[in-house]
Amino acid sequence: RTVYVNGEYLPEDQATVSIFDRGFLMADAVYEVVSVLDGKLLDFAGHMARLTRSLEALEMDNPLSEDEYLDAHRQLVERNGITDGLVYLQVSRGNPGDRDFAYPPKGTVPTTVMFTQAKPGLADAPAARTGWKIVSVEDQRWGRRDIKTVQLLYPSMAKMEAKARGADDAWLIEDGKVTEGTSNNAYIVKDGKIITRELSHDILHGITRAAVLRFAREAQMQVEERSFTLAEAQAAAEAFVTSASAFVMPVVEIDGTSVGGGKVGPVATRLREIYLEESR
Ligand code: PDD
């Protein structure tokens, strides 16, 4: 695989980053994941807009222009022959000096890395036909989940707990309400309405969420942005999640209770079709 590090394209085993990099020592880094279908980047502009917001929230300089990011994404897709898969992009604050909790607010040289992951048949994931099983786990992440940082230890632990309990993913619960999945936004369908938590610091502002809600409204579906409890989700007609890598993924079981009779529902199926049609 060819990877990108600070302007250079290198074989992955020759790419290096300093051990003093604050991304490595302090998770002082932000990231984006852009899906690739048929060699095409999905929702690229949206991901770049969120990258800019994440960097600004952490007072980090943006090392590249949107055109330069686009060129690097395209080059990596091309050089690695990616038809279906993703491009991972990470910008960390770099290593302005010794390990120190304080950092110079601006002007440090960030570390920029990008790499691809091939995922053949990404759009035809068999799970999209059977749906995911979800378990609930307490949301113990920090309070700025709208910034897409690489502090992913708690979501990783929640994912491991889900797997240990025979499920595909976990929904995180705070104050009795679902915030989101470990790496996706959460939805239910009730009385024909699509319900998903409103945007705040409590959840990541999903780029797929924005696209799916736009397509839903264009298709005259009703959308309600509000939080919901686990019990409401278990009693819903349908449930699903969205993310750049899962697109629209139906949920058929929550904490052992079947949702929608344990079958993938029509709204999730339709939204997945629309999303894949419209964003390709
Ligand atoms: N995760 N919520 C969280 C906590 C996420 O990590 C993600 C994305 C999403 C969905 O956002 P988007 O639609 O922009 O992908 C919601 C990526 C895919 C990841 O960590 O791999």
Automatic annotation (TrEMBL):
<keyword id="KW-0808">Transferase</keyword>
<dbReference type="InterPro" id="IPR043131">
    <property type="entry name" value="BCAT-like_N"/>
</dbReference>
<comment type="function">
    <text>Acts on leucine, isoleucine and valine.</text>
</comment>
<dbReference type="InterPro" id="IPR036038">
    <property type="entry name" value="Aminotransferase-like"/>
</dbReference>
<keyword id="KW-0663">Pyridoxal phosphate</keyword>
<dbReference type="GO" id="GO:0052656">
    <property type="term" value="F:L-isoleucine-2-oxoglutarate transaminase activity"/>
</dbReference>
<keyword id="KW-0032">Aminotransferase</keyword>
<dbReference type="InterPro" id="IPR050571">
    <property type="entry name" value="Class-IV_PLP-Dep_Aminotrnsfr"/>
</dbReference>
<comment type="pathway">
    <text>Amino-acid biosynthesis; L-valine biosynthesis; L-valine from pyruvate: step 4/4.</text>
</comment>
<dbReference type="GO" id="GO:0005829">
    <property type="term" value="C:cytosol"/>
</dbReference>
<dbReference type="GO" id="GO:0052655">
    <property type="term" value="F:L-valine-2-oxoglutarate transaminase activity"/>
</dbReference>
<comment type="similarity">
    <text>Belongs to the class-IV pyridoxal-phosphate-dependent aminotransferase family.</text>
</comment>
<keyword id="KW-0100">Branched-chain amino acid biosynthesis</keyword>
<dbReference type="GO" id="GO:0052654">
    <property type="term" value="F:L-leucine-2-oxoglutarate transaminase activity"/>
</dbReference>
<dbReference type="GO" id="GO:0009082">
    <property type="term" value="P:branched-chain amino acid biosynthetic process"/>
</dbReference>
<protein>
    <recommendedName>
        <fullName>Probable branched-chain-amino-acid aminotransferase</fullName>
        <ecNumber>2.6.1.42</ecNumber>
    </recommendedName>
</protein>
<dbReference type="InterPro" id="IPR001544">
    <property type="entry name" value="Aminotrans_IV"/>
</dbReference>
<comment type="pathway">
    <text>Amino-acid biosynthesis; L-isoleucine biosynthesis; L-isoleucine from 2-oxobutanoate: step 4/4.</text>
</comment>
<dbReference type="InterPro" id="IPR043132">
    <property type="entry name" value="BCAT-like_C"/>
</dbReference>
<dbReference type="GO" id="GO:0008652">
    <property type="term" value="P:amino acid biosynthetic process"/>
</dbReference>
<keyword id="KW-0028">Amino-acid biosynthesis</keyword>
<dbReference type="InterPro" id="IPR018300">
    <property type="entry name" value="Aminotrans_IV_CS"/>
</dbReference>
<dbReference type="Pfam" id="PF01063">
    <property type="entry name" value="Aminotran_4"/>
</dbReference>
